[in-house]
Design goal:
globular, four-stranded antiparallel β-sheet, 5 helices, alpha+beta, single chain
Length: about 110
């Protein structure tokens, strides 16, 4: 299984670089999601909930972007699962601070 990576653009230039597949990474922060945390999110149905609620397509071999207008709801959904997804929550909180987006590279 390849690494599951969460990427947060730190500003609007980072968003543009990411979305336009520019190879610069200085405006992006990377988080490596552990296999255990990822598998838990899959088996718990967390990604299915996100997909259903926000019309996303998060699954094992896909890339998806969670826009900032969904962050508050996503954070509430994470909390309903307890403290099972610490790295995902850390990346989400960082994306909230940056007011950008959360990019999932699965």
């Amino acid at each position: 299984m390849k690494d599951k990576i969460l990427v947060v653009p730190i500003d609007e230039q980072g968003v543009s670089d990411y979305e336009n597949d520019v190879s610069k990474i200085d405006r992006l922060k990377y988080f490596i999601l552990s296999r255990k945390e990822f598998n838990s999110m899959i088996s718990d149905g967390f990604f299915d909930l996100l997909n259903d609620k926000f019309d996303l397509w998060i699954e094992e071999y896909e890339e998806e972007i969670i826009p900032n207008e969904y962050f508050a709801s996503v954070k509430q959904m994470i909390k309903s699962f307890g403290k099972r997804y610490p790295l995902f929550l850390t990346a989400l909180n960082y994306a909230i601070e940056c007011d950008t987006e959360l990019c999932l590279e699965f």
